[in-house]
Design brief:
The chain has a single domain, classed as Purple Acid Phosphatase, chain A, domain 2, CATH 3.60.21.10. About 20% of the residues lie in helices and about 25% in strands. It contains six helices and 16 strands. The strands form four sheets. Strands 1-7-8-9-10-12-11 form a seven-stranded mixed sheet, covered by helices on one side. Strands 6-5-2-15-16 form a five-stranded mixed sheet, with helices on one face. The mean pLDDT is about 95.
């Protein structure tokens, strides 16, 4: 567990799906992912004067190399706040643990004065889809039961709601109903936040807000039956978590830089 000292609101920045490579010139579908992430972090610095914590919500690496995670670690070192990492389907869990050793990056519960973040691992080794193992669901249940006085943001990599894209919804969270059942038992869950889908969305279901966010590199075309890329620029999500449980949030994207996306690609 990590305890944050903060004044209200709790200011969170989420970046996701960085897909970094060991080589600095590594590309994904035409985009140099290290460069595009650095462009996103530049606008974070310009737009968010104070940040309490950074969240990187999975697919940190594309090739699973030590160097790819070190690129991320070095890029975030300039921020005066802790950063937490989630496992995505492309990530190498063992290498992540090695690089993050002696840091709080892989802690799963973060608590502040009025809020707690529960960071769940939905990775399934060797698979693209996600699944919350019994111990992850129990972690959520126990954490929620322990502090019913804290508003809660649940975070994971895979999407627990359909995105309206046939190809994508086959690779979402396979036991989303189990997650929903835990959330339903605890009225202090305010929102669920994820990556994986490379696009933004904002919905409310049974009083809980469900949020997805863009990638720092390529974007997926919303509503597409088959794999397709969007021409929107890389971006990030910011969240201000207020003492009364309210959430202010938005997405901001890089402007004025052209990214040469391979729109003809059929997969990644």
């Amino acid at each position: 567990m990590y305890n944050l000292d903060n004044t209200s609101p709790l200011r969170l920045v989420q970046i996701s799906d960085t897909h970094l490579h060991g080589p600095e010139q590594g590309q994904l579908l035409g985009i140099n992912t290290l460069h595009s992430m650095q462009c996103v972090l530049d606008i974070v610095r310009q737009e968010r004067a104070h940040i309490d914590t950074l969240l990187v919500s999975g697919d940190l690496s594309q090739d699973g190399t030590v160097r790819s995670y070190q690129h991320l670690q070095q890029a975030l070192a300039g921020f005066a706040c802790p950063a937490f990492w989630l496992n995505g389907n492309h990530d190498n869990a063992e290498v992540m643990q090695h690089v993050a050793a002696n840091t709080p990056a892989l802690l799963q519960v973060v608590r502040a004065t009025h809020w707690q973040l529960v960071l769940l691992n939905s990775q399934v080794a060797g698979a693209v889809f996600g699944y919350l193992q019994a111990e992850q669901l129990q972690l959520l249940e126990d954490t929620l039961a322990e502090r019913p006085d804290l508003h809660t943001l649940v975070c994971l990599h895979h999407h627990p709601l359909p995105m309206g894209s046939a190809w994508m919804d086959k690779i979402g969270l396979q036991n989303a109903d189990a997650l929903a059942a835990v959330i339903k038992r605890h009225s202090h869950v305010r929102a669920v936040l994820w990556g994986h889908v490379h696009q933004e969305s904002d919905r409310t279901v049974d009083g809980v807000r469900y949020l997805s966010s863009p990638s720092t590199c390529v974007q997926f075309l919303p509503g597409s039956a088959d794999f397709a890329l969007d021409q929107q620029a890389p971006g990030y999500r910011w969240l201000d978590l207020h003492a009364d449980g309210r959430i202010d949030t938005g997405v901001s994207r890089v402007q004025g830089i052209v990214f040469n996306v391979d729109l003809a690609s059929q997969g990644y």
